[in-house]
Amino acid sequence: MGSDSCADTVTMARELDPFRIPRAGLETVPLAGLAVLPLMGGQGNLGPRQLISEATLAGVLVYAAYQALLSGLRTEAMVRRGELGRAGQVALIGRSVWASMREGTAVSLVLSLVLLVCPWLAMPMAVLGVVGLGRASMDLFHAFWDGLSPEQRLHLHAAAYEAGVNLNRLVARNADPRLEA
């Protein structure tokens, strides 16, 4: 099981296959739009070229950061289980972030052009950005949770129980109907 079998990426849908690295998906598009929002406030000070370039860069950075977190969490679990070495982990994260940045560039460029033509869409995009942020947070939590050992999960459940928090709704496989297949 070499690192080449780990190079596949999938859109994050709580993918439980340990050899598939999740890929930033549609939840990242509104996050990129949320990153553009501060630029829209200063639109009068920015020319169209500068707005497009800065908005595209902001979106690419959002895609890259999110992808790095997703890949890092998933591959760290693989390193701990001995299925992947550190050098392979770094290479795999680099490849997945690079692929995500290429996709993020195209999406962010289109998004910045749409917001340049229709600046009134900035506010609805901000609302969608909050929803996307919630989805991305849950995907990151699931990637973190899936990488924990059974002992670590038991300790977290015990600590959550002592704090009066029920983790079962967050980590249950039935919480996501796409996982039942």
Descriptive notes:
With 181 residues, this protein is mostly helical. The protein folds into 2 domains: 145 residues, no CATH class; 33 residues, no CATH class. The protein is 67% helix and 3% strand. It has 6 helices and 2 strands; from the N terminus they run ββαααααα. Strands 1-2 form a two-stranded parallel sheet. The relative contact order is 0.17.
How would you describe this structure in keywords?
181 residues; mainly alpha; two-stranded parallel ribbon; 6 helices; flat; disordered N terminus
Task: Compose a concise summary of this entry.
The protein has helices at residues 28-41, 48-80, 86-117, 122-146, 150-162, 168-171; strands at 9-11, 21-23. It has 181 residues and is mainly alpha-helical. The chain has two domains: 3-147, no CATH class; 149-181, no CATH class.
